[in-house]
């Protein structure tokens, strides 16, 4: 399953990228994320390379490690879930781009792509009605966080 959504936000791309790359804070604003901790950073950029996340929804409660690839230049943060019992695959990709000047707009466009597949087909069936909403819920939470942190 793959879901994507995007939002135009009135903040500079670099500021929004820094919020996306702040994985240690995810548990403070992302629904269903009960824990988030960067376990390894790049010595050159000090950006996350690996993180441990705990997600919980209904009867699902799983802690897993994600391999993280951050590019400040491209405005991307991609996390691939690894070593877990719940997901066959889990890829989250955030992209922050300059919003341009069209129609009097500025700021940035933030896109979120969420791709996942459960190992257990029963979980896939149970979650089918809810999962299309997850990306929208996550980007709404991010938009609220950006407003709180960046004004």
Automatic annotation (TrEMBL):
SUPFAM superfamilies: Bet v1-like. It comes from the Eukaryota. Residues 9-143 form the Coenzyme Q-binding protein COQ10 START domain. It holds the Pfam family Polyketide_cyc. One of its GO terms (molecular function) is ubiquinone binding. InterPro entries: COQ10-like, COQ10_START, START-like_dom_sf. GO terms for cellular component: mitochondrion. One of its GO terms (biological process) is cellular respiration. Transmembrane segments: none annotated. CDD domains: COQ10p_like. Interacts with coenzyme Q. Required for the function of coenzyme Q in the respiratory chain. May serve as a chaperone or may be involved in the transport of Q6 from its site of synthesis to the catalytic sites of the respiratory complexes. Belongs to the COQ10 family. This is Coenzyme Q-binding protein COQ10 START domain-containing protein. It comes from Tuber borchii.
